[in-house]
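Researcher: I'm preparing a figure for a lab meeting and need a structural model of a single chain. I don't have an experimental structure, so a prediction will have to do for now. The sequence is pasted below. Please return the structure as tokens so I can convert it later.
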Amino acid sequence: MTRCRPCSPVPEEVRRAAVLLEGRWTVSILWASAEGASRFNELKQAVGEIPPRTLAHRLVELESAGLLERRVIDARPPRVEYRLTDDGHRLRSVLDALAAYAGAV
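Model: Understood. Here is the structure written out token by token.
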């Protein structure tokens, strides 16, 4: 009888990243934001069938995680834009790898 080999514990950094990215629509929002600054309705249109409440919640989560920056533009009427931070841009290679994998499957 063979025994299974013991697995190493998952590093805490990987767990934190997985928890953040496993939220539904999160990867799609990051992908849409990688093009540059986007407004709420532009992100909603790019992502698709996401409920507005869910989009707002995911934007707050990504901003809290330091991946998105929220900028209020002083105009009439005021508007808000979201853009990737430097940390968010570091995820671009992960997003590109996911896209390449999805194209190969």
